[in-house]
Specification:
The chain is of the alpha/beta class and 299 residues long. Helix content is 30%, strand content 19%. The protein has an eight-stranded parallel beta sheet with strand order 9-8-7-6-5-4-1-10. The protein has a three-stranded mixed beta sheet with strand order 2-3-11. Helix 5 packs parallel to helix 7. It is globular. The relative contact order is 0.20.
Length: 299
């Protein structure tokens, strides 16, 4: 199994101790987000895990204890956007995050730290020119510490539409996407970065920008030396190219407070879930009840 850690929350930022405890115990319990009382028991043994794919805006808390997963293949999707706290409310300042990015890259290698610059949001204050300027600033600082940048354009999902409208975000047309991607591609090339898109239907291959696979069996093979037999993830959006993975996170548990986040729908629910956090529990921010049904998950 490929284990996603996690699209549903920033586990490296807020729950790294819990994650490491689950690795030591050899398993994790995960609630089905669409059927509350259905729980999967997921093995985290070396034999069961093909790779850990981490998703984070600030994995600083994980770095010193990475030796715990030395025997596992893993890599990081590291989001670093040019936004301030009006958009990403609780993400630390850029200089601190850039330092963390470099420390992580120095420790595990630039091929295992993928820079995510997504989603791209356009407002009057966050213009296209703003993006070009700060994309180049970030690209220059990350040169040599990563080889790839993944981009996407913001989607106005019902859960996030109100927040995006509050900051005056515009819908981005395909024509706009082509123009923006072309310019970002030119900047990336100057810093030896390859750009790929995440779950975008639009074809940008004329600019050397291909459709990406954030959960990437080719990268996993490069890291692990093993061929991974896996299908496309049927639980993701149609335009998503990711391989199938098992996510061990929980929605409404991320504390970054990003205005575009689809994984939280209520700050009060997030705060309530945080009161249930137990670093030694097999479930993240939840307790087992008499009504729960626990089944083994093998794939």
């Amino acid at each position: 199994m490929i284990i996603s850690v996690s699209r549903r929350t920033d586990m490296p930022a807020f729950y790294s101790d819990w994650f490491y405890n689950r690795v030591k115990e050899g398993y994790v319990l995960v609630r089905n987000p669409f059927n509350y009382h259905q729980i999967s028991k997921v093995s985290l043994s070396l034999d069961a895990v093909d790779c850990f794919v981490f998703w984070s805006k600030n994995p600083a808390n994980m770095i010193n204890d990475l030796y715990i997963i030395d025997k596992y293949p893993y890599y990081f999707q590291f989001t670093l956007n040019p936004y301030d706290d009006k958009v990403e409310k609780n993400v630390p300042g850029k200089s601190k995050i850039i330092d963390t990015f470099k420390r992580l890259s120095d420790k595990i290698g630039p091929n295992r730290v993928i820079w995510r610059c997504d989603p791209i949001i356009i407002t009057k204050a966050i213009s296209e020119e703003y993006h070009y300027k700060y994309f180049e600033v970030l690209a220059s600082k990350l040169k040599g510490y990563t080889s790839k940048c993944i981009i996407s354009f913001v989607d106005f999902y019902p859960k996030v539409k109100k927040g995006l409208e509050k900051i005056g975000a515009f819908e981005i047309s395909d024509e706009d996407k082509v123009r923006i991607a072309k310019r970002l591609g030119e900047i990336a090339e100057a810093y030896s970065l390859k750009i790929e898109t995440c779950a975008e239907k639009i074809d940008l291959s004329q600019f050397g920008i291909e459709h990406g696979r954030c959960v990437d069996p080719n990268l996993i093979k490069e890291i692990s030396g093993r061929n991974i037999k896996t299908a496309k993830d049927k639980n993701q959006r149609k335009a998503c190219g990711c391989a199938a993975s098992v996510d061990i996170g929980a929605y409404n548990t991320c504390l970054h407070g990003c205005i575009y986040c689809y994984a939280n729908y209520s700050s009060s629910v997030v705060n309530g879930n945080m009161t249930l956090y137990d670093v030694n529990s097999p479930l993240l921010c939840s307790n087992i009840t008499d009504e729960d049904l626990i089944t083994e998950r093998n794939s």
